[in-house]
User: What shape does this take?
Amino acid sequence: MKSILNTLHEQRWDDHRYYHHSRINQSLHLLSALSFLFGYVLLFVDPIAAAFVAWLVAMTSRQIGHFFFEPKSYDEVNQATHDYKEDIKVGYNLRRKVILLSIWVALPALIWFTPSTFGLPPTQPDVQSFVHTVGECWLYLGFAGLVFRTLHLFFIRDVETGLVWALKIMTDPFHDVKLYYKSPFYLLKGQLIDPMDDVKARQLSSSTRR
Assistant: This one.
C-alpha cells in the first residue's frame, strides 16, 4: 500500500510540475474538475447526462488548456524540452489525446450516418434516440480510454504503474480542486504563468539533502 501511495504521489507531482504551468490551464482544470465531480454524481442518476457533462464540459475545458495555453517552449524550471515531456508522460500525451478526441468527435457523425451499426433503426435516427446513443457511446469511450491505457502501461511499464495511473485519473478531480482553486485569482491579478515556487523549493531541498 505504501508503494502505491508513493507512486501515486510521484505521478501527481510530475503531472503538476511538467504539464500545468499556465494559470489559464490551471483555471480550466479547476472548471474541469468541478464538472467531473458533478458528472460523478450524475453517473448514479443519469449516466447519459453524465457522459455529456464529462465530454462536452469537463474534457473540453481540460484539453483546451493543454493544447492552447500550456507553454510548449523549453521548461526552465524542470530543465526539460517539450518533446522530452511528451515522451515521458505516463498518461495521454498530446499525440494520444488527438487520437482519442478524434474518435470522440467522429462518433456522432458515424452514429448519424450509420445508425444501425449502433443498434438504431436503419433509417435516419430521431433526435432523442441519436442523443441517447451518442451519450452512451461517449460513456463507453471514456471507460475504454481508461482501460486501454491502463493495460498498455501494464506492458510498457508495470502493473503497479498502470493501476496507480487509473486511480490517479479517477481521483484527479478531487486533487485538482485542492491544487488549483487559487489559480483564477492569480489569473485575475495578471499572472499568466505559475512561477512554480513549490517545484523550486522542492528542488532546492533535494539539492541541500545531497
Residues 127-156 form the longest helix (30 residues).
